[in-house]
Amino acid sequence: MAAMSYAFYRLPYADTYSLIESEQEPLKLENLEELGDVPGFALVPFRRSTDTPALLIQPDSITTRRLTPTPEHIAAPEAKIQTEPSPQYIRAFEAFHGAVGSKACDKLVLARSKKLMVRALHDLTDPMSMRPIFERACKLYPRLMIMLYSTPLSGTWMVASPEILIDGKGRSLHTVALAGTMPFQEGHLNWSDKNKQEQNIVEKYIESILTNASEDVLKDGPVTMRAGNLVHLRTDFRFHLGQGLTLGKLVQQLHPTPAVCGMPKTEAIRFIAESECLDRRYYSGFAGPVDIQGETHLYVSLRCAELSSSENGTEAMLYAGGGIMPGSDCQSEWLETESKMKTIQNVLQ
Fold first, then answer.
1. This prediction's pTM
2. What is the pLDDT averaged over residues 86-97?
3. Sign of the dihedral defined by the CA atoms of residues 300, 239, 243, 253, in that order
4. Distances (CA, A) of 27 to 23, 110, 154
C-alpha cells in the first residue's frame, strides 16, 4: 500500500476548509495539458524534473470542516529578519541586475531560501498532526489561499499565496496579474515607477495569452491588494475559455508567468537555471484543487516552505523571490524577500 498523501486548502475569506486524503500513489503528469482530465489536487513545480514531478492527488475522501471562531483580529508575531544581504545574494543580485541593465531581459525574478528550525516536532505524514499548523495559518492570513500538502514524492509543503493562476467553475474562469511589492501601511500608497513597470510586464503578458484564449476578456485594475504584512499591485481578468481550448492547454501557456520568472519568458527561465544557484522545487510552481465538485482553484506557490523532519524537531526551508528591474536596489530586494518569508515564519515560530 502506498504511503498517505493529503492536501489541506482554504480559499481566501472562506470560513471552511477542505482536506483531501488518498492512499493511492499520486498521478504523475507528463504534460500540463493533462490537467483537468481527472479531478484531484495538483502540485506542480517551477520546473519539472525527476526529483520534482508534477503531481495530482486523486482523492479517496474529501472532508470539509468549519474553522473555529476566533476574535476579529489575530496579531501575527513579529519574526526576526536579517537586515544585511548575504554575500551569495549580493553576487546573484549583481548578475541578475546586470542582465536587465544590459537589456538581455526586461525583468528577472531572483529567488532565495533559508532554513528555520520549528520548535515543535510534528508527524508530517499525518494530516491530523499537521492540522493545527494549517488552521493557525488560516486564522493569521484570512485574505490568502492557504494550502498544506504532503506526498511521498514531493515532501510536505505549506503555502500562503495571494496569486491566482486559474480560478473558476467550468469554462468561466478568472486569473490575475500580480506584481510589485511594498510594506503594508494605512492611508495612501505611492507606488514607485519600478513597481508599476514590473506589474505592467506581467499584465501585458497575461492579457496577450487571454486575448487568444477567449473573446470576452474583462479586465479590472490595477488596484492595491493587501497580502499579510505586504501589498501588491493586482489586475483581474475574467473570461470564458474559448472553443478548442482546455484548462490544461491554458495552464501550459500561462505557467510560469513573468511574475515568478521574468520576460522574455524563455530567456528568463534559462538565465534563472544558469545563475540563481537555487533549486526552487515547488516554490513558484502552482497548486490547488482541479475540478473538485466542479470547481478549480489553482494558486501560484508563493510564501511557501518545505517542511522536513530532523533529530531536533521539524525544519522549514523558506522560499521567497523578487522582481529585478533596472531600478532595483540590492538592499531593498533583500528586505522584500525577508518580509515575504515572515509570512510562513510567523505561522511556524
1. 0.94
2. 95
3. negative
4. 12, 30, 12
pLDDT digits (tens, 9 = 90+) for 275-307: 998 999 999 999 999 999 899 999 999 999 999
The whole domain housing 137 covers 5-66+119-267+281-301
Residue 143: inside a domain, yes or no? yes
CATH code of residue 176: 3.60.120.10
Q: How many CB atoms lie within 10 A of CB 21?
A: 16
244 CB neighbour count, 10 Å cutoff: 7
Compute the average pLDDT of residues 203-229.
91
